[in-house]
Amino acid sequence: MSHVWRERQHQDLEDFLTPQILVKSPVKQSVGGQHLSEAFSMWFRGFPNLDYKETALEVLKDRVSIEWQVKGDHLGEFLGVAATGKPVVYSGTTTLVMFDQRIHAYCADVQVASVMGQISPDPYVAKKAVGDDMYLTVNRLLQLNLTHRQIDCLALLCLRCDSRVVSSKLNIKYSTFRTHVERTLPSIGLSSSKDVFDWALSSNALEILINIALERICAKCD
What's the rounded Cα separation, in Å, for the pair 138 and 187? Predict the structure, then answer.
């Protein structure tokens, strides 16, 4: 956090992240360190003089939760609003999921509506959260009738999550997860779970499955 917010080195993160880091923030939800850098760039472009201060820190097993407060001035474009020069103050929580001393998931909970209210008179409309409609979209796209649990399993397979993550996020034994997968694979024309990522990519379902997986991985960040 110091490397990014204090030293402004948000485009040099390789030493801190796993290659397939999960990124969940109000301005970016995706996979990969480059996307996380882009999310940071959006904030620095809009508020280049941000002053970052941590107010609380909690570590629980592989999860690090950081409460923070930021202040700065709106000196550049941010979410479509041109620079106004207005001061802003906002707070939030960032949760990091760690494996092997690297960040596996970066989840930021920021009240963007509060930020926008300080720089623009127009009401801010947040992006719609992932919900049942995402599962409906998957089935419609694939012309299938998969259950929510089957889609969750495929989504986590796309991210190559290990057994601890799967068991924790789906609240089931890993053996149960494998059973779900084995029953689902024939429905999508596969015989091996190793082929799920390539199948999702070729089926144009990868992005939506990644968003569903992000919701499962970062569920405790909300």
Answer: 13
Tokens of 96: 């990091």
Integer Cα distance of 91 and 71 in angstroms: 9
19-47 residue pLDDT tens: 778 788 877 667 778 888 988 999 999 99
CB-based burial of residue 151 (10 Å sphere; 0-12 exposed, 13-18 middle, 19+ buried)?
A: buried
Task: Classify 203 as helix, strand or coil.
Answer: coil
Tokens of 20: 């397939």
pTM above 0.70, yes or no: no
Place of tokens 């989504």: 155
Paired strand residues for 73: 87
Q: For 25-70, give the DSSP string.
A: ETTEEEESHHHHHHHHHHHHHH-TT-EEEEEEEEEETTEEEEEEEE
Q: Using one digit for the tens of pLDDT, what is the confidence trace for 122-159?
A: 887 765 544 557 788 899 889 999 999 999 999 999 88
Structure token pair of residue 52:
């970052």
